[in-house]
Write a structure and sequence with these properties.
There is one protein chain. The chain is built from 11 helices and 11 strands. The chain has 329 residues and is α/β, with parallel strands linked by helices. It has one domain: Luciferase-like domain (TIM Barrel, Alpha-Beta Barrel). The chain has an 8-stranded parallel beta barrel with strand order 1-2-3-4-7-8-9-11, surrounded by 7 helices. The longest helix is centred in the middle third of the chain and has 19 residues. The radius of gyration is 19 Å and the shape is globular.
């Protein structure tokens, strides 16, 4: 997987519509221009229900599918996955795959565990990992088999025939997870990477220090070998933040406006900002993005933390991309 070519993704702010960062028409124009550029190979949206509300991800992806023909279409982290019923998700996502003629990537995660959102759907915080695991297994069964017979801890389906099926066989499911070593320890990281290696078709991460990330890739490769999985085409993605501005301070200020509204005041930490936000003049942005590529990222998905989504796209292509070395050391 570490020898795969770099494929650029564009993450568009469907939550930003709710606080004046952008407009729906601008987002959809950006998706179309991303495809026309020949640089961006995929377009992505974020996902959450009550905790961090936004224009719903599958609805946004459906609109983008209608305006594009080639780019892959993904949800960068379906944080609502543990509270969505797998049957509804399977039908909606298969419909999207049909609509887009087989261009989807379903990125799933356990979400942030917001108590209010979990309570609204009758899900307990400690059920999230189990629902993620069982949900992935059930989606694959629904999409693969004519008749579904599943009796699990959270879901039971016996003698069901569920259509439509996705165009893609198999329809790719990626797992987004970035365990904090200080919280879960080495054992917790091993458990998470084993889940990725055995259940997922791709891996989405937040930034972590270079050596730590390489160890995580080593674990994925180790567990995949042990389970007889071929991961030669297994993509590794990062959701990276970018703000290109010759005035580095102005770039940081605009990015912080984005973070304060998209997430919460005080997030991300100064330590995380250093490895997550590529900001300032093109040379500074290229330096951090190059670091992501060098540590093994095959599919950088860029989110421009700016009100000028299209201008940032154009500047990345014109001023930053030529500075990058896409061959890994």
């Amino acid at each position: 997987m570490r020898n795969l070519p770099v494929k650029w993704g564009l993450s568009l702010p469907n939550r930003g519509v709710l606080f004046g960062l952008t407009k729906i028409d601008t987002i959809l124009d950006a998706a179309r221009l991303a495809e026309q550029s020949g640089v961006f190979e995929s377009v992505w949206f974020g996902d959450s229900f009550i905790h961090k509300p936004r224009i719903e991800s599958i609805v946004m992806l459906s609109a983008a599918a209608a305006r594009t023909a080639k780019v892959r279409l993904g949800v960068i982290c379906m944080a609502s996955f543990p509270v969505r019923h797998p049957v509804l998700t399977a039908i909606q996502w298969a419909s999207l795959d049909q609509l887009s003629k087989g261009r989807t990537i379903l990125g799933v995660c356990i979400g942030g565990g917001h108590e209010g959102e979990l309570r609204a759907f009758g899900v307990k915080r400690d059920e999230r990992v189990g629902r993620l695991t069982e949900g992935i297994e059930l989606l694959r069964q629904i999409w693969s088999d004519d008749e579904v017979n599943h009796r699990g801890k959270y879901y039971t389906l016996e003698g069901y025939r569920i259509v439509p099926k996705p165009v893609q066989k198999p329809c790719p499911i990626w797992i987004a997870v970035t365990p904090d070593r200080a919280v879960v320890g080495d054992k917790g990281i091993e458990v998470a990477m084993k889940r990725v290696a055995t259940l997922a078709d791709g891996f989405i991460t937040m930034p972590v220090p270079h050596d730590d990330f390489r160890r995580r890739l080593d674990l994925i490769e180790k567990f995949a070998r042990e389970h007889g999985r071929d991961i030669s085409n297994f993509e590794v993605s990062i959701h990276g933040m970018v703000n290109i501005n010759d005035d580095r301070r102005a770039a940081c200020e605009e990015a912080m406006y984005y973070f304060n509204n998209y997430y919460a005041p005080g997030y991300p930490s100064e330590e995380l900002l250093k490895i997550w936000l590529a900001h300032g003049p093109p040379e500074e942005c290229a330096r951090l993005i190059q670091g992501w590529i060098d540590m093994g990222i095959t599919t950088p998905v860029l989110r421009f933390t700016s009100r000028n989504q299209i201008g940032q796209m154009e500047r990345f292509i014109k001023d930053v991309l030529p500075l990058l070395r896409l061959n890994r050391p």
